[in-house]
Write a structure and sequence with these properties.
180 residues; mainly alpha
């Protein structure tokens, strides 16, 4: 999966938008959390990254429930299980924060209860992933725990990020791009 390298204009844009939205709109001054969220936006630029988890037959998993089922079937305590649950939290937060209208329109995503279910699975998935606190995950575990505890606030912050990038796009002259 391609992810913009550090210093790439896209990463800088997401970092600036995320920091501005969380600090000025929500009053949240939590650099590790803000860094995680801006990194999530950069990682999910391509849909391949959003749908990177594969099922038993090698096909991308697209539904949250299928991702959870797959993750629960993995051996407990393994890095892969942790990464699956972390990714499920990321996907749930991405959709509920940036594009909630997309999940409420999807007839396979629990209809009018989709945002509530995505939120529930996202919070639980981040909590499970946060329990892996050995040396490899020591720095990220507290951030994942905060994402679980403050999922709704983070989703609101991501909606503010979207609003800000849409405002930026509206202010550009025709033919100009957000990224130069």
């Amino acid at each position: 999966m391609w992810e913009p390298p550090a210093g790439h204009p896209l990463r800088r844009m997401f970092a600036g938008l995320t920091e501005h939205a969380f600090l000025t709109r929500l009053g949240v001054a939590d650099p590790p959390l803000i860094d995680y969220l801006s990194s999530l936006l950069s990682r999910f630029v391509h849909t391949d990254a959003v749908h990177r988890l594969k099922g038993q037959h090698g096909r991308p998993l697209q539904e949250i429930a299928a991702m959870v089922t797959e993750a629960e079937g993995l051996p407990d305590g393994g890095r892969t299980r942790r990464e699956y649950f972390r990714h499920i939290g990321d996907v749930a937060l991405f959709w509920t924060g940036l594009f909630p209208e997309a999940i409420t329109r999807d007839p396979d995503a629990w209809g009018p209860h989709a945002v509530v279910n995505y939120t529930t699975f996202g919070k639980l998935s981040y909590f499970i992933a946060s329990r892996y606190e050995d040396d490899r995950f020591r720095d990220e575990a507290p951030v994942l725990r905060r994402l679980s505890e403050q999922f709704e606030l983070c989703a609101t912050g991501l909606r503010e990020v979207r609003r800000e990038w849409e405002d930026m796009a509206d202010e550009l002259p025709p033919g100009a791009g957000l990224i130069q």
